[in-house]
Design goal:
The two termini are 15 Å apart. The protein has one domain (5-94): Arc Repressor Mutant, subunit A (Orthogonal Bundle), CATH 1.10.10. The chain has helices at residues 8-17, 24-35, 40-47, 51-65, 70-90; strands spanning 98-100, 106-108. Strands 1-2 form a two-stranded antiparallel ribbon. It has 111 residues and is mainly alpha-helical. InterPro entries: Sig_transdc_resp-reg_C-effctor (IPR016032), WH-like_DNA-bd_sf (IPR036388).
């Protein structure tokens, strides 16, 4: 259950990445590839890694996910979202409190 809309992107990315057998470090790099508006140099700085190490990890991610480039990897994520959007919209993903009206009927706050 999510507590805020800010948790949604992280949850969706993590669900997508769980479909692949990535190491914890590769998952962290993959998360940044999907969410950060940075190139490899910028991501390496954010993660306090050398650019060479990061590029090696990115190559491993692309091999594991059968992606040719970052845009291909991002396209796979977008396809995942499209496939699962129906399911995601039908799930109750927020913990929304319910309240009783004065007449005793239950009501929920809309987001």
């Amino acid at each position: 259950m999510l507590n805020s809309i800010n948790d949604l992107p992280e949850r969706l990315v993590n669900e997508f990445l769980s479909e692949y057998k990535l190491t914890n470090t590769e998952r962290e790099v993959a998360f940044h590839l999907l969410t950060a508006n940075e190139n490899a140099v910028g991501i390496a700085k954010m993660m306090h890694k050398s650019v060479k190490t990061l590029k090696n990890q990115i190559s491993s991610i692309y091999i594991t996910t059968n992606s040719k480039a970052r845009s291909d990897f991002q396209a796979k994520y977008i396809e995942y979202l499209h496939k699962n959007i129906q399911e995601l919209s039908s799930k109750q993903i927020f913990d929304i409190p319910s309240f009783r009206r004065r007449d005793g009927k239950q009501m929920r706050h809309a987001i």
